[in-house]
Amino acid sequence: MCFAYNLKRSMSLLGYGSAKAALRHATESIAAELARTSGMYSIQSIELTPGGRVAQGTDFTISGEVYSPDGRSPAVLVGIVRADGTSVYGVATDMDGITLDKVRGDRYLFSLTFLELALLPGKYVVRVHALDPEAVRLFDHVEREFVVTGETREFGFVQLQHRWG
Fold first, then answer.
1. What's the whole-model pTM score?
2. What value, to the nearest 5°, has the Cα angle with vertex 103 and ends 49 and 46?
């Protein structure tokens, strides 16, 4: 019991809200370092803005850093799935003709903003994938959970603009 209390207190002091968040951070840090040292394209960091809770109809940004072992700009694929794994949407930098900006030596920045997020309230997962520049081979995969909040009573995944006649 003393160990569990000390672990929980230490995680709280380090800024982790739960053991799950601390474990996810540690696992992803190790995976990113292994991918980098083995010469693979890898997601080094990911950030959700405004965070893990986003109000329906507001802008939602997914951003981060990708490692490139050969100095070429990697492709990044961002997908959104419902908590049950059902695909909702996915788009990659190569689909939109985007080349990532180099931030330093072997690191590239990505940022994708969904304007006026049309997802209906519920639990979702963002999946970010690091691919080679040709967007053919997938090397790394990182996930983040988020919740869309709102008061609507509509059904499905997205709110489609509509008009009754």
1. 0.79
2. 30
